[in-house]
Q: What sequence folds into this?
């Protein structure tokens, strides 16, 4: 399998392996002694040539180690014809990251010769990775690098056809990118291939965006949940199953809770409406997170945490929002927007917060059509060589301004305050002041948004002197304030005046010994959704890890 972008850091995993060692790590061969240990977790089979071992769309495929013969991995090319993307021979093994979950796999595998194989079921595969850490490390690294190649080469992926600046195109692309699903975008405004596709598929422009699968199924502007279901990214929930712990929200706090809960043996499920990462997942680079001296993108950090949680057995239910918490009796029930219910003995609320909207005429009209709440490489492509506006004085706004200054012609940072020092880390403040491509406008706010189908012009005004300025700006990044994602609680828990979950007190308002306990026993809140929390990735991770001790005490009070 050839990799045309070998030096590109993958946004999902954050890995940047040495190009000379990448192929050896992606398709390693286990030593004889390791192969013998692997055999203890499965069954040896003699398989004739041409036997299909697993197929695209299958869930929970078995893991195979080749002893003799070979396994060919195939997908479909753009014409629907099978193509070989890899061949595993002696002591090579099959699989990639979907072996850690129950999503539909992207490729098929069949024997290319009479072969002797070790077949390991999904349950025993998880035992192997946990019990044999040296082998598990080799497998994990290979799986991550294979997913990198799958994303970079679009293997097993879909084609997204639509205008790149369109709100629904961006919505679907953002979902695919943040969930690490391979895809290719054809911009109907710029790509000459789009006209041919219009004729070939008889698709009218008003039906865009369109998603086309490898077998040429077409989905016209699907909802995010519908797309997730069609791609097999969602996992079926078992009715009546009672989990030890349900984590609501897959930001840094929720993922940390999932990793520590699952690694300590709790039956854990994470429910997330969009993709792992939360608000932090939209950050282009976090440079003050411990252990990453050169920084790491929010999506890369979330991608690694998601893999860790799944490695230990946590399940992730994405593209499903919790609409109600039934907390009158235990175990608790979480009702999802598709009508399903998740039952759990304990609940950790980690739904975080969202950026506030601006009170400006036409604001709703241009959401997704020029107004963004994330500054990642995907959004960066939309404003290359143009002037952009970033609204906000926190770290997220600072990170966005610095990132965009490398892409845009100029970045205007607008804040209502007199400066940045009180709300932004000093290293970001200094970069903004020193950059010739960033201008800070203090005591300033947007007063007008104008354009046609998409944003074309922005006017801002000084609050002190009333002066105004109008610029040709088509992209505004809004990162101001925080509103808690607690609407779904419907009076179940005590909230503060701003809607954040009150913690550290019981149902009678008396202080408790558990700082993350809510007014209902067995329900905890961590991260940005918690009243009084520190809005930092590191603090969210810390809270998510520490809360599991309290979960254990609630589930097993006699254990002390």
A:
């Amino acid at each position: 399998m050839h990799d045309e972008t070998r030096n590109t850091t993958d946004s999902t995993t954050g890995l940047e392996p040495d190009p000379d060692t990448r192929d050896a790590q992606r398709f390693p061969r286990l030593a004889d002694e390791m192969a013998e240990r692997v055999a203890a977790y499965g069954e040896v089979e003699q398989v004739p040539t041409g036997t299909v071992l697993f197929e695209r769309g299958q869930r929970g495929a078995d893991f195979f180690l080749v002893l003799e013969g070979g396994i060919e991995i195939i997908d479909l090319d753009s014409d629907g014809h099978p193509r070989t993307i890899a061949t595993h021979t002696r002591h090579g093994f099959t699989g990639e990251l979907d072996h850690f979950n129950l999503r539909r796999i992207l490729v098929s595998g069949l024997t290319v010769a009479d072969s002797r194989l070790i077949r390991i079921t999904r349950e025993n595969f998880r035992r192997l990775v946990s019990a044999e850490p040296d082998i598990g490390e080799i497998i994990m690294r290979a799986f991550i690098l294979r997913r990198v190649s799958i994303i970079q080469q679009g293997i097993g992926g879909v084609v997204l056809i639509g205008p790149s600046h369109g709100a629904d195109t961006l919505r679907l692309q953002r979902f695919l990118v943040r969930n690490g699903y391979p895809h290719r975008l054809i911009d109907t405004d710029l790509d000459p291939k789009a006209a041919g596709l219009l004729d070939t598929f008889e698709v009218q422009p008003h039906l865009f965006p369109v998603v086309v699968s490898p077998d040429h199924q077409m989905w016209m502007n699907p909802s995010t949940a519908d797309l997730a279901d069609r791609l097999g990214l969602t996992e079926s929930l078992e009715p009546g199953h009672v989990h030890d712990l349900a984590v609501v929200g897959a930001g840094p706090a929720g993922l940390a809770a999932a990793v520590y809960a699952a690694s300590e043996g709790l039956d854990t499920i994470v429910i997330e409406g969009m993709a792992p990462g939360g608000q932090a997942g939209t950050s282009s680079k976090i440079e003050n997170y411990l252990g990453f001296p050169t920084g790491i993108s929010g999506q890369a950090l979330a991608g690694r945490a998601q893999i860790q949680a799944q490695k230990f057995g946590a399940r992730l239910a994405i593209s499903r929002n919790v609409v109600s918490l039934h907390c009158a009796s235990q175990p608790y029930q979480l009702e999802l927007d598709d009508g399903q219910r998740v039952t759990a003995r304990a609940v950790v609320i980690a739904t975080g917060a969202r950026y506030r909207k601006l009170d400006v005429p036409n604001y709703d009209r241009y959401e997704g059509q020029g107004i963004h709440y994330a500054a990642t490489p995907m959004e960066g492509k939309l404003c290359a060589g143009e002037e952009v506006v970033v609204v906000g004085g926190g770290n997220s706004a600072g990170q966005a301004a610095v990132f965009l200054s490398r892409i845009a012609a100029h970045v205007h940072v607008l804040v209502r305050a007199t400066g940045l020092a009180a709300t932004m880390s000093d290293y970001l403040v200094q970069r903004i002041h020193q950059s010739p491509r960033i201008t800070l406008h203090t005591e300033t706010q947007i007063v007008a948004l104008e354009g046609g189908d998409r944003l074309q012009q922005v006017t801002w005004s000084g609050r002190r002197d009333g002066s105004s300025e109008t610029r040709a700006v088509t992209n505004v990044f809004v990162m101001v304030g925080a509103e808690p994602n607690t609407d779904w609680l419907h009076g179940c828990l005590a909230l503060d005046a701003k809607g954040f979950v009150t913690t550290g007190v019981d149902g009678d308002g008396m202080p408790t010994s558990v700082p993350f306990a809510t007014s209902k026993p067995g329900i905890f809140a961590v991260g940005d959704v918690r009243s009084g929390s520190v809005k930092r990735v590191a603090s969210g991770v810390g809270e998510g890890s520490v809360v599991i001790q309290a979960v254990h005490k609630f589930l097993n009070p006699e254990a002390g």
